């Protein structure tokens, strides 16, 4: 019979046996899966684990700090943070095509991660033999061939495997579903902001800016997104919605009025959806007063945004993300 306690105990024993006195590396993405996988391995082998977090500058407000401070405080894990913001911005310069963005972000991520890996190995000698991955049961089933759903967008999971891999994998979540992973994370004492986090795409805000990705646009979108999340949380709606992408239409401008001046700013799109598994989704019927609050705050507080629109498209035909 299944309890979080027994899962943890079983995994810790197995990991200890496997790793012995060798060393392991784990990439953290800010998401639930990699955090819980890392916390389990940390519990098993302590400082024999080093985590790597690539800061690509495409995270939402506060998320990097959650990893750097809260996750480290909760687990005591050894963490190497790589600030690669400039590098990603440079690589994304002039690029508007969604698939092109995904490819660039995925490619740069792997390069930066491999470099960090090489540095850790250089520091600690050849005894680094294990790579920790937050693979879940549904991922295992999916990559096992399964039903072969059409690959509509290329999905990159940040934390994606380098190709010329010479590590053994540790995948302590291979038998678990998402809700079980959350329970394990909670039992391990991880912060709620990480354990209860809704899905967020690997390429981050890079695919929520329709148009070229720039530092200014990222900062603007981060503000708008933080307001939407804050109000949804305050209204107690986090459990009712699957996720709510906030999208900046950077290539669109519309006319508005503020005080006695004309404005010519960008729209922000709210895309709240309900879903079971992200394969299909419906747009969430959020209370009007919550939408009104979010709209008022975003247009008042975020410079260059003069309009907030609601996406009322189901999936299909729309995807959850705009890119
Ligand atoms: P779509 O937009 O295809 O998204 O309806 C379905 C779910 O997948 C997430 N998503 C991604 N996750 N890397 C990820 O790790 C990606 O490139 C990516 N693209 C979309 C999306 O947030 C939704 O939960």
UniProtKB/TrEMBL annotation:
Function per UniProt: Catalyzes the synthesis of GMP from XMP.
Annotated GO CC locations: cytosol
Name of the protein in question: GMP synthase [glutamine-hydrolyzing]
Organism listed in the record: Streptomyces fungicidicus
Q: Which domain of life is it from?
A: Bacteria
What stretch of the whole protein does this chain cover?
204 to 526 of 526
The GMPS ATP-PPase domain extends over 2-197
Q: What gene is this protein translated from? A: guaA
Amino acids binding ATP: 29-35
Any one GO molecular function term: ATP binding
The UniProt catalytic activity note for this protein reads: XMP + L-glutamine + ATP + H2O = GMP + L-glutamate + AMP + diphosphate + 2 H(+)
